[in-house]
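Lab notebook, bench 4. We co-purified these components, and the gel suggests they stay together. Before we commit to crystallization screens, I want a quick structural picture of the whole thing.
Request: model the full complex, all chains together.
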Amino acid sequence: MRAPHLSSLDSGPREQALLARPTKTDEELMAAYLAGNTAAFRELFNRYGAVLERVMRHRLHRPEDARDLVQQTFLQLHRSRHDFRDGALLRPWLFTIALNMKREYFRRAGRRPESPLELDGHRDPGVAPRGHEQVEATEEVRFALGKIPEDQRDVIALHWLAGIPLPEVASLVGASLSAVKVRAHRGYAAMRHVLKGRRGNLDEA
Amino acid sequence: MDCVDIKEAVLRGESLSWEAAQHVAGCPVCSLALSEQQTTGSDESLFTDIRRAIDEERGVRAWLRSRSTNVRLTLGAGWALALVALVALLTPRTHYAPMPFAAVVVVLAVLSALGAVVLRLELHPLQAPEPSIGVVAACFAAVLVAPAVLAFAPVPQAALFDHYTEFSPPQAAFGCFFIGVMTGVLVVAGLRALDRRTSHSRTGVLVQAAAGGVAGNLALELHCPITRPSHIVFAHATVSLVLLALYEFLPRRRPA
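Here is the predicted assembly.
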C-alpha cells in the first residue's frame, strides 16, 4: 500500500466534502488515510490534536515539550498505520500511543513528572488567544490537577481533559473499571477541596 | 450525583438534569469544566510540523519501520537467524560428534525462546502498553545468566573440549568474544532500523543489548567447541553486557 505523503496530495473539494459529513467515524477516517486520503489525517488531527495537547500539558512545564509529544504521537500514528485492523477503535489506539510517548519522555530524561504550570505565563504559540476568563479557568484546572496524586491525575486528565469515558480510561491506564471509578471520585473530590481553598485564599487576599 | 456522573452524562450527550445543574452551580470543578470549553480545531503550526515530519519519512529505514508489527517481527527474526547461520557456516563448530544431541538442543531452545521474548519486547507496537522496566531488566538478566548456567550443566567426559592446541585460552576467549559481539552489533543495527521509537530510553537500550546478546550466544553455540564453564562465562555470556557498555560509551544520536 502506498505511503501517503501529506504534501504530495492536496485535499480537493470532493475529499473535503466527503470528510465534512459528520457521520464519518475515526475508524473510517483512518481507513481513508490508509487508502491514501491525506485529508482524513488532517481531520483526525483536528479532532485530537488539541485534546492530546491538553492531556500532555497537564504534566509538562514547557508547552513546546507538550507540542513535541503531540507531534511524535501523530508521527507514530503514521508509522503504525499498517497495524491498524478492521474492527479496532482508533481513539484508545491513539491515546495509548500518546501515553507511551509521555512515559518514554520521562524515562528518557530520567525525570519525574513535572508539576503542572504554576501560572508560568507561557501561551502556546499558534493557539488562538482566548478570553481572560477561559485562560484563568485553564490555569485553575492545571493548578488543581497538580495538587492531587499522580494515579488520580492521569485518570482525570483522560476523563476530563480528553473526554474519554471511564471504561475506556480503565483500559488505557491498565486498571479495572471499579479502581478507575474510585480514583476519579477521589480525584474530583480532592480537586474540589483544592479549588475551594485556592478561591478562599484569593478572596482573602 | 457528583462530578464523575456529570462528566459521564456530558460524554454521553445527555442534557443535565435539575439535580445535576444544582451540583454544577455549587461545584468549582464542574463549573470550571463547563467554562473551560474543549479546545478543538486546528493548530496550523503544529500540523505543519507534523506534516513536515511525515514528509521526511522516506527511504529504506522509514519503509522498514512502517511495516506492520508482524512483518517487522519476521524481518527482525530473519535478520538475526541469517547472521547466526552465517557464523555457523563460515566458522563451523568442531568436535560436535561427542556432544549429546539433547544438550545442544536444550541450549539452542533456551536461547531461541529468550530471543523470541526479547524480539517481541523490542518491536512491540506503540499502540500496546509499554513493557515495564522490571520486565525488561528481568529479560536482560535472563540473557546474561542463561548461557552461564547452561555452561555448568554436566556433559559426558568424551564431550569435554577444554582448549585448542593452537590457541592459548585468552586467545580463544578473545576470538569468541569478537564473533559474539560483532554478531550482536549487527543484530542491534538491524533491530534499530525496524524500531519505531523516536528516542532510546533505558528500556530500549536494555532490550536491544539483550537481543544482541542472545544472537551472539546462539552464533557462538554453533561456532565454539569449548565446553569449559569459565570460557563460556567470560567469553560468551558477557556479550550482552559489552553491548550495553557500548551504548553507554558511544556518542548518542537522537534517531530520526
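Residues 84 and 219 of chain B are 5 Å apart (CA to CA). Worth comparing against the SEC data before the next meeting. Chain B is about 65% helix and 0% strand.
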